[in-house]
Design goal:
Largest sheet: none
Radius of gyration: 33 Å
Strand content: under 5%
Oligomer: single chain
Order of helices and strands: HHHH
Distance between the termini: 95 Å
Structural class: mainly alpha
Number of helices: 4
C-alpha cells in the first residue's frame, strides 16, 4: 500500500533532509523523492532543458527507481507564452520585486515574474549607462593601448636594461651612524 508521509513534530523541517520523528524508511524515501521531484520541476521551469546532467542518473539512487515526471506539464512540455501566465498577487507585505517566491505562486508564475524583473532591470541599466549592443564593461574592459616598443627579436636584452643610472644615489653627506645618532636624544 501507499504510505502517507509522517507529520513530524512542530518545528521539524518537512522540506529538509533530516528524518522526521516517527517517520518510517518508506515514508522517508517517499518524502525525499517528492522533494527531489519538486526541486527538479523548479529547476526545469527556471533553467529549461530536458535533464540535469549528473543529477539525473537513474541507476545511482541506491536501488530506488526514479518516478515518472509529474503530470503538471513541467516535464518536456513547451513553455507557455508570456501572455498565458499571469503573476500571482502574493500576500500583503511580500516583496513582489524580490527573488523570494510569493505565497501561492506557481513555477510558471515565478519564472514570469523573475523574467519581468530582469527585463525591467536591464532597461534601467540601459537608460542609465546607455543601451548599446555591447555588454556592460567594467575594470579592464577596454582594449589595452598598443605597445610602444616591441620585444627584441634577436634574443638580446633591451637597451634600457643594460644602461647604468646617470648618477649614483647620494647619501647627502651623512653616514648611517650620523643618521641613527639623531634618534633617542
Amino acid at each position: 500500500g501507499v504510505a502517507d508521509e509522517a507529520p513530524g513534530l512542530p518545528g521539524e523541517d518537512r522540506n529538509g533532509i533530516a528524518r522526521l520523528t516517527g517517520e518510517t524508511d518508506d515514508q522517508y524515501v517517499r518524502r525525499q523523492t517528492r522533494l527531489r521531484d519538486e526541486a527538479r520541476a523548479r529547476m526545469q521551469a527556471k533553467f529549461g532543458g530536458s535533464s540535469m546532467s549528473s543529477a539525473s542518473s537513474g541507476s545511482s539512487g541506491g536501488g530506488m527507481s526514479s518516478p515518472a515526471r509529474p503530470a503538471n506539464g513541467v516535464g518536456n512540455a513547451p513553455t507557455p507564452t508570456k501572455s498565458a501566465v499571469t503573476e500571482a498577487p502574493g500576500l500583503p507585505g511580500e516583496d513582489r520585486n524580490g527573488i523570494a517566491r510569493l505565497t501561492g505562486e506557481t513555477d510558471d508564475q515565478y519564472v514570469a515574474r523573475q523574467t519581468r524583473l530582469r527585463e525591467e532591470a536591464r532597461a534601467r541599466m540601459a537608460a542609465k549607462f546607455g543601451g548599446g549592443s555591447k555588454k556592460m564593461g567594467g575594470v579592464g574592459s577596454t582594449a589595452a593601448p598598443p605597445a610602444t616598443q616591441s620585444a627584441p627579436s634577436s634574443g638580446e636584452a633591451p637597451t634600457w636594461l643594460s644602461q647604468k643610472p646617470a648618477t649614483a644615489p647620494s647619501s647627502g653627506g651623512l653616514s648611517s651612524g650620523d643618521f641613527f645618532s639623531s634618534f633617542g636624544t
